[in-house]
Design a protein that fits this description.
This protein has two helices and five strands; from the N terminus they run ββααβββ. 25% of the residues lie in helices and 26% in strands. It has helices spanning 27-39, 66-83; strands at 7-8, 23-24, 87-97, 100-109, 117-123.
Length: 124
């Protein structure tokens, strides 16, 4: 019996089994890949869906202060809510460390019978 694939892993990498791209087999891994895909895609980059993604790149040369961190959290939250209505974002933390910002995202999958909290960390 073959394993069922849910979606393509993000970031993209070659399949171990010789297929074109590697896939996710677990729901939490699939949701993490989807979250990364939304956060790391610039708005306007996806054909036929210009509102998909975020404008996180506009914060690249902004001051590393509490106002910018708040704006980053808002941008990530609104983009994820729009692109992924099947998950509930329970908490987003933006943590500043020297010249990097780390996003910690806690989400719940509400679509399945079970509910699982998912944690993902993105350094931007």
């Amino acid at each position: 019996m073959s394993e069922k694939s849910i979606n393509i892993k993000f970031p993209f990498k070659d399949s171990v089994k010789g297929f074109f791209l590697d896939t996710n087999k677990i729901t939490s891994d699939a949701i993490k890949s989807d979250i990364l895909h939304v956060l790391l895609t610039q708005k306007g980059e996806r054909l036929f869906d210009p509102e998909f993604g975020t404008n996180l790149y506009k914060f690249l040369f902004e001051p590393n202060d509490s106002i910018t961190l708040h704006d980053i959290k808002d941008e990530a939250n609104s983009s994820l809510n729009r692109a992924m209505p099947n998950i509930e974002i329970s908490k987003i933390e933006a943590i500043s460390d020297n010249n990097t910002v780390k996003l910690e995202i806690y989400a719940n999958n509400n679509e399945d019978i079970f509910q699982e909290e998912i944690f993902i960390e993105v350094i931007i």
